[in-house]
Amino acid sequence: MSVENEAPDRKARNQGRPTELAQGNACANGESAIMNSGNVIVKTVRHLLSVCILFLCAASVALAQAGRGTVSGTVTDSGGAMIPGAQVVLLNRATGSTQHTVTSAAGLYTFVSLNPGVYQVTASQTGFASVAQDKIGVSVDQVTQVTSPCA
Question: Are 49 and 119 within 8 A, CB to CB?
């Protein structure tokens, strides 16, 4: 047999049978399809978790801003001059909880993010008599102004 006759004969025998290289590619393609479907699942789960975390963060921010009030004021002496460094205590009458702050150099103080209710504000400073103001009402999204004159 000549070389020319052998080549077509070999083609006929191998027809319908994938070569080893082709079989390797077929396995690799099958594995690749399985791996790609796994990647799609992982990506989908990641996206769902990201969306859930986003909603949880947005909900916590929304809840933190709802239904709160503020008490802001000044501490002055009998002549109306501001008293810096005065101790100010805010008492929630319903719960008994207290918050503490110190007035600024301008005699100002602020308590933020308070539950609505009735409070007592007490101001004191060395050399001055303490003054307590009762029945300070705090409403939702409102700033209650309080002036505390120490004698």
Answer: no
Displacement of CA 140 from its chain's centroid (Å): 22
- Which pair of structure tokens corresponds to residue 101? 């702050």
* DSSP classification of residue 92: E
Closest CA to 109 of 140, 86, 138, 78: 86
Residues 98-125 have pLDDT tens digits of 999 999 999 999 999 999 999 999 999 9
Q: Under DSSP, is residue 17 helix (H, G, I), strand (E, B) or coil?
A: coil
Amino acid at 77: D
Angstrom distance (rounded) from CA 103 to CA 109: 5
Using alpha carbons only, what angle is made at residue 129 by residues 105 and 96, rounded to the nearest 5 degrees?
85
Cα 8 from chain centre:
73
Handedness of CA 19, 23, 29, 32 (dihedral sign): negative
Alpha-carbon gap, residue 54 to 30, rounded angstroms? 36
Q: Show the tokens assigned to 91.
A: 């008492």
Tokens of 128: 């001055």
